[in-house]
């Protein structure tokens, strides 16, 4: 179990139009200029956009893996400890964060290609 920073960065390549920009101590993750996540390489953590309900559930279920980052509007951002999560679950969470942020047409096109 556990995902390295490099493995996380590879995951992002599967999400169309994902942009990365250096924020100093973190890397900002955006789609079409809107943020859906952050990466702190030094602490090997990721902050991801989620619904408030998802944020509450994740933190309550596994506080050793997830912690509340902040809430704003209808979204609750979650800190994920990369060493304590498996790749499939992390990819699901980062995809959800991307879907909450990307334009509907881009999400629909991505889901049409990646439906099970």
From TrEMBL:
Pfam family, one: YjbR
Keyword ATP-binding: no
Gene Ontology MF terms in the entry: DNA binding
Keywords: DNA-binding
UniProt entry tagged with the keyword DNA-binding: yes
Entry protein name: MmcQ/YjbR family DNA-binding protein
């Amino acid at each position: 179990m556990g995902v390295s920073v490099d493995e996380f960065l590879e995951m992002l390549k599967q999400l169309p139009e994902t942009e990365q920009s250096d924020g100093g101590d973190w890397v900002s993750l955006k789609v079409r200029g809107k943020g859906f996540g952050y990466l702190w390489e030094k602490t090997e953590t990721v902050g991801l956009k989620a619904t408030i309900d998802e944020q509450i559930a994740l933190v309550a279920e596994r506080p050793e893996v997830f912690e509340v980052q902040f809430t704003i509007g209808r979204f609750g951002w979650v800190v994920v400890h990369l060493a304590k999560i498996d790749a499939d679950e992390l990819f699901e969470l980062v995809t959800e964060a991307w879907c909450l942020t990307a334009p509907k047409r881009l999400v629909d096109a991505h889901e049409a290609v990646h439906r099970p």
